[in-house]
Amino acid sequence: MTVDRAVALLSPAWNRHDALVASSRARSITTLVINTEVLDHGLRAEASIDRQGDGAAFSNEERQHWLAARISRASPKISTLDVIDGSRHARNGPTYELTGKPKLEYEL
């Protein structure tokens, strides 16, 4: 849905596509907000051991760099067709087997 103004709560779990979709929901102004406690928790989890327990807040630059690294990652869509062996499929074309009706291996 497109609106005149939008507010989006950023998440470190987002990827490049999620950020693009959220930031393009408004015609004029989109405001992106973030919970700094969530960022600090993620930063602390990946920080060196000497910085994990000190409870000190991270700088805005550290938060911005960490969040940008997460949001800039790509997440290509995967289809069930990606599982097909591409070399065999390209060489021989698709193959289909007609196996008939499945048989039960047990009795009810």
In terms of structural class, how would the helical and strand content be classed?
Answer: alpha+beta
Radius of gyration: 24 Å
Strand order of the largest sheet: 1-2
The helicity comes to 25-40%
Count helical runs: 5
Q: Find the count of extended strands (DSSP E, 2+ residues).
A: 2
- Write the element-wise H/E pattern from the N-terminal end onward: EHEHHHH
Beginning-to-end CA distance, first to last residue: 51 Å
Query: What does the largest sheet look like?
Result: 2 strands, parallel
Ranges with pLDDT <50 over ≥5 residues?
Answer: none
Shape label? flat
Average pLDDT number: 76
Indicate the proportion of strand residues.
5-15%
Q: Describe it for me?
A:
The structure is a single chain. This protein is α+β, with helices and mostly antiparallel strands and 108 residues long. The chain has a domain at 3-75. Helices cover 39% and strands 14% of the residues. The protein is built from 5 helices and 2 strands. The chain has a two-stranded parallel ribbon with strand order 1-2. The protein is flat and about 65 Å long. It starts with a strand and ends in a 16-residue tail after the last helix. The model has no long low-confidence stretch (mean pLDDT 76).
